[in-house]
Each structure stands twice: as C-alpha cells, then as structure tokens.
Design brief:
By secondary structure, this protein is of the alpha/beta class. The chain is about 30% helix and about 20% strand. The longest helix has 15 residues.
Length: about 280
C-alpha cells in the first residue's frame, strides 16, 4: 500500500452506535485535522472508547466516518488499518520477550515471514531508525521490551504505529500511570508526531490536557456536549453543570486553565472523568 501523504482529516458525521437498543454514540459529528492535537474527554459512559471502536471497525456503526477521502464504516478492521489508521490501548501491547528493535521491525514488516523478522539485521531499516529517534528509545534498541518502564512501553507502541506510516493515531489514555517526567515527554512526543498527522487522544488527566491539547471535544451521554479550546470548554456552563455536576458559573477545578482570575486546585483533578 502506498500512503497518500496529503494532509488528511478525520471527518465524523452523525455517528451512531447502539447495543441492544441503548444508543452509546448518538449522532456525533466532528472534524480533526493534522496539527490539531484533539483530546476527547467525558464522564463514564460518555461514548469515547465506543467512538474510537467504531472508527477502527471494532463495532458496527451508522453514519459516516471518512479519512483521506475513504469511508471507513463497513470495512473490516485490517482494511481500515491498511488505510493508515492505528490505535493504542490503555495497556501497551508489545512483544515483551523481543527487543525494542525487533518489535519495531515486526511492525514495519508485518507482511514478511516470521523467521525473517526475528533474524538480526546487519543494518537497521531507515523507518525503524527514524522511529527510534522520534520516540527516544535509540539507546534502548537492544533491550527486551518487557524490561522497559511503563512510559517507555507506551512510546514503543506509538513507534510501532509510526513505522507502519500511520497517518491517523487514536490513543487511549497514553499517559495513564506515568510519572510527571514521562507525561511531559509523552506530550512533547505527541506534538512532534502530530504536526503532519491526525491525532486523537482519549484522556482523563486534565493537567496533561491543559498543557498539550490544541482542542477538546467533550462527550456526554453519547453526544458532543462542547468543543473548542480548553479555555472555551472550561467556560461552557453545560460542561460545568453536566460534565462535572457543578452549577453554572462555577469553573471546574479539572478544567481550570491559565485564565485570568482562575487558580486550579490540582488535588481534586484526577477523579472527575474517565477515559
């Protein structure tokens, strides 16, 4: 497959997903383009993960999901992946007994026979070498992936998408369980890779969101509740009342940003939302 490297946007129109009569995603429409590091947030049952499942073909859905001019709904998972679409999950999925380099090599050459993937190469493929540098794991290339710290495993999983030339990355809680330093490094990584790719992040870490989000979509009960910059979303009375159960006019602690007169109280932030 030859990937079209024109700037590509994710276009979701009237997306609907139902389970036994329950509408988990209820008419969601949104657009995300390259360079727009979009964070998708919302309380339990908001429909965030179900939306990503629909985009990647894991659940049946109605409406329209287009990326790079291609309609995704109705395609099997592997064909969606071949269109340059990849995702991560809350727990990194890597081959723990293989080295970092072997993990990336397997991801880069998924169609080659297994015995050629495990063979030590005389030279590192260019796309693998480039991914190692991007994710900051060049010094760890010969370490078994299972020995990496939690944050570095997440970076490796992102690297495994990069070597496949993924152009739409859907990341599910990429900083969950990370240290402050790892979160900062992950945010910098997402900014680097998001410059010419389309990136959507499901997240509940509001400090991380305030530091790195270009824009935010808030889901509630399967619908878009609010959308825009962090400042716009935090000022939305519907977000204050519905998303966090606070009366209108009360700025939620979890979304308090560097806004005049607003001082975030970090200690109350974490439990407000679920990925």
């Amino acid at each position: 497959m030859t990937t079209d490297h024109r700037l590509q946007s994710l276009e979701i129109t009237d997306l609907r997903v139902s389970f036994d009569g329950f509408r988990a995603v209820d008419g969601v429409s949104l657009r995300v383009g390259p360079g727009d590091l979009r964070f998708l947030i919302g309380p339990n049952g908001a429909g965030k993960t179900t939306l990503v499942d629909a985009v990647t073909g894991l659940v049946r859905a109605a409406g329209s999901v287009r990326f790079g001019g291609n309609e995704l709904l109705g395609r099997p998972v592997h064909r969606i992946a071949r269109l340059g679409i990849g995702r991560t999950f809350q727990t990194a999925t890597v081959f723990e007994n293989l080295t970092v380099l072997q993990n990336l090599d397997i991801a880069a050459g998924a169609r080659r026979p297994l015995h050629t993937l495990l063979r030590r190469r005389r030279a590192v493929p260019e796309e693998v070498d480039r991914a190692l540098e991007t994710i900051g794991l060049t010094a760890d290339r010969d370490r078994p992936a299972g020995t990496l710290a939690h944050g570095r495993k997440q970076w490796l999983e992102i690297g495994m998408l990069l070597v496949q030339d993924v152009q739409l990355l859907l990341l599910d809680e990429p900083v969950a369980g990370m240290s402050h330093e790892e979160r900062e490094a992950t945010g910098d990584l997402l900014r680097r890779i998001g410059g010419d790719r389309t990136v959507v992040v499901i997240e509940h870490d509001m400090d991380f969101l305030r530091a790195f989000a270009s824009s935010v979509t808030v889901l509630h009960a399967g619908r878009v509740l609010s959308e825009g910059t962090v400042a716009k979303v935090q000022a939305d009375p519907r977000v204050q009342e519905v998303y966090l159960g606070q009366p209108p006019g009360t700025v939620p602690d979890t979304l308090a940003a560097a806004t005049p007169g607003v001082t975030p109280r970090a200690a109350t932030a974490a439990g407000a939302a679920e990925a």
